[in-house]
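call fold(seq) -> tokens
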Amino acid sequence: MMLDRTRPPSPGPLRAFDFPPSTMTRLDSGVALEVVHLPRLPLVTAILVLRAGEDRLAFDRGGLAVLAGDALEGGTHALEGHAFAEALERIGADLDVSTGWDVTNVSLSCLADRLPAALELLASLVREPAFPEAEVRRTRDGQLARIRQRDMNPGSRAATWAARTLYAEGEPYARSALGNLDGVETLGRGAVAGFAEAHYRPAGAALVVAGDVDAGEVEQLTGRVFDGWTGGDGVPEPPEGTPAESDRRTVVVDRPGAVQSEIRVGHVGAPRSIEDRLDLVVGNAVLGGTFSSRLNLNLRERNGFTYGVRARWAWRRGPGPFLVGTAVDTAVTGDAIREIIGEIERIHADGPDADEVEQARNYLAGVFPLRLESTSQVASHVAERHVHGLPADYWATWRDRIRAVTADSAHAALRRYLRPESLQCVVVGESAAIARDLASLDVGPIGVVDR
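ret:
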């Protein structure tokens, strides 16, 4: 039989996958402890989730949480700087501190038999951070350099201006998590140490340990290293995420001589806590969340405007942004925006069809196990549950719930959360070259800035 190369092969059956079981308890300090047993490899990852994210900060204090997390590399009062790094190296442990909008995660990965020493170091780092003046200054200078670099990169400038455009003045989400130059330049050791003293606390915190470990032994160990740790004000209220405008408008950030335009189109989105989030995830996959999405087939495959375009919902405790992003030649800027808005309007009005939803469901369910292959990936997923207060079986039932999404339920979610009438457009490009095309579009009032 001849092979028909004109037709793609049919997908095979979905392989079974069970999310690993876990044991949950609460330490005397108030920290929620969850231990996931993964016997495949003699490795372990521990993630301490602290309610110390950027969403705790007023607009003019932006970047302080990120700075405090990065400055933890300065070590503890007992083991500063190089001494702390050498202690990690002696046990073969990797330390990572990541600060986002919702939390700061302090994680360590090592061989399972080195976990006791690793947890001792982790606990000492968050309970007794030293924040040496020189380390804070070095970290702050690095953060300022990242902000300057961000402002010179067209894609990053588009993201910054999209936040300013979508959110009302003063909203935390109206800025970058890194903060801005004027604000970060004023931050010193006192501000960093004060933030850590207030928010590196057990109230609302969680510790996730994933690997080849015994839950009872981990509970005893963590109870000891965190004994006497107190304080904190629990889980803060998320930002309201108030939109700046309810009607369409456009902001052009002028780059004279630019041969490309960075485009962002979107509006204030939805919080992570919405009950029909997976319906929206599938609907967005059809719109612009996968390579075979409507937006990519339109702008890349059919029109050749771009190498790629994506639609993303930024899932935060508060309503993060929904944004479509791409880069195109200056000459087709207006055409690209017209097609983006058109695809958003069409899927909002008519919804995805059954075949599109099936394809999106199969893709999302199929790649799910690939994101859970290491102890750090499993621990990160479990930590996310604690950040957002998700049920204990959330990941165990995730694929079944994704596969239960229908074209009607996806359309209902898109109708509920997608707001074509409120789309805000941000273009970083040469305003003189695109002004006439933009004026012919239904994109609301157009403002031009040169910063």
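The mean pLDDT is 95.
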